Automatic annotation (TrEMBL):
Signal peptide: 1-21
SUPFAM superfamilies: Thioredoxin-like
GO annotation, biological process: cytochrome complex assembly
Name under which the protein is recorded: AhpC/TSA family protein
Keyword annotations of the record: Cytochrome c-type biogenesis, Disulfide bond, Redox-active center, Signal
Chief localization: other
Location of the protein in the cell: Cell envelope
PROSITE patterns tied to this protein: THIOREDOXIN_1, THIOREDOXIN_2
GO cellular component: cell envelope
Limits of the Thioredoxin domain: 237-375
Length: 375
């Protein structure tokens, strides 16, 4: 009897969980000038969290859609001809946030210019866009002008510096608007995406908590929230104060263990041959290596290359005499996965006891920054 009651309870619990996961949505659209030879295509995450598509033919300027999705996710609506014209690029689309609820699409002959209203996440998205649209448009114009001058055959260094100076205050205003939205919307899927897109290239555990800690349990329970938590947890493994160790093969395939250098200050540098900013740092690291190698200092380069030839050619070309290791798996290298390294260059300095004492030491004065730790 007990087994029967347990089985019934289990079935009811699973049924309740499934009903919670089935976030039903409805979309009703009116495009008065779309004609009768178009259809609307919806690209979104289904209730399993997988990429999915649905479509509806526009009839008398109207269309409807319904389905289930998973939490709040960025989706796309596009308007396309029923008979696809392969000679033309299809670009009439708009991104929006889809979650449980009813949505209304109102426009004339274009999805890109239509109004999409609905659940809370979409309202948040509309608010964020309104707050940043003018700044982002201004910054895009600056970027385009900078790119044109920077990649010209003859570089105008004065113009480059002028545009860079123009860009700084605009960029600062964009960052301020971004932070303002994030801190005022801790229970928003939009906030979650904004943090993931703008604040996680390199996570510093000492400062990232101000963005992560206010987030609600609801948004952190989503797939994106779980991924953010996982990356944050990995970043904590290489926070200042943590003792680290790893094993990686060198160019000859011999296993190198970081702890074999205990007793020295060691800069662990994540880089790759294809990474331009990484290669730009190498002359500065070489200067530091030459000045400090006889004072108990070593560098270990962890390459995120995927081919040995590219890795070794870069080592030779840049004249890097320090220890080099790699398992040639790119960002899937064991260490990168373990520590959540998804952007380079990154580095950390460990003391003779194997404890991290500083992170991301770069620039022309990197030798002085490192020397300050070596007594």
């Amino acid at each position: 009897m007990k087994n029967i009651r347990y089985a019934v309870a289990l079935v009811l619990m699973l049924s309740a969980m499934n009903s919670m996961a089935q976030d039903k949505f409805e979309i009703a659209g009116k495009l008065s000038g779309a004609g009768s030879d178009k259809k609307v295509v919806l690209s979104y995450k289904n209730s399993d969290g997988k990429d999915a598509k649905d479509s509806a033919v526009v009839k008398n300027g109207k269309f409807t859609m319904a389905g289930t999705t998973l939490y709040g996710n960025k989706a796309y609506l596009s308007l396309v001809p029923l008979k696809k014209d392969t000679t033309k690029r299809q670009s009439d689309y708009q991104e929006f946030y889809l979650e449980k609820g009813k949505y209304k699409v109102t426009g004339k002959d274009s999805i890109a210019t239509a109004s999409i209203t609905g659940a809370q996440a979409q309202s948040d998205f509309i608010q964020y866009n309104a707050q940043t649209k003018a700044l982002l448009t201004q910054f895009k114009d600056i970027t385009q002008r900078f790119t044109k001058i920077y990649y010209a055959k003859v570089k105008d260094t004065v113009a480059i510096k002028t545009i860079q100076a123009e860009a700084r205050p605009v960029h600062a205003k964009i960052e301020a608007a971004l932070d303002s939205f994030i801190f005022s919307h801790p229970d928003s899927y939009v906030t979650l995406d904004l943090i993931r897109q703008n604040k996680t290239a390199v996570i510093d555990p000492a400062t990232f908590g101000r963005y992560y800690d206010p987030l609600s349990k609801r948004v952190l329970a989503s797939p994106t929230g779980q991924k953010l938590t996982d990356k944050y947890d990995k970043a904590k493994k290489i926070a200042v104060g943590k003792v680290v160790d790893f094993t990686q093969p060198d160019a000859e395939g011999k296993e190198f263990k970081l702890s074999s250098l205990r007793g020295k200050y060691v800069l662990v540098d994540f880089w790759a041959s294809w990474c331009v900013p990484c290669r730009a740092e190498n002359p500065h690291l070489l200067k530091a290596y030459k000045q400090l190698k006889d004072k108990g200092f070593e560098i270990v380069g962890v390459s995120l290359d995927e081919t040995k030839a590219a890795w070794q050619n870069a080592v030779k070309h840049d004249g890097m005499p320090w220890i080099q290791v790699s398992d040639l798996k790119g960002f899937k290298t064991d260490i990168a996965v373990q520590y959540g390294i998804t952007a380079i260059p990154q580095n950390f300095l460990i003391n003779p006891d194997g404890m991290i004492v500083a992170k991301d030491l770069r620039g022309a004065d990197v030798n002085e920054k490192i020397a300050a730790f070596i007594k």
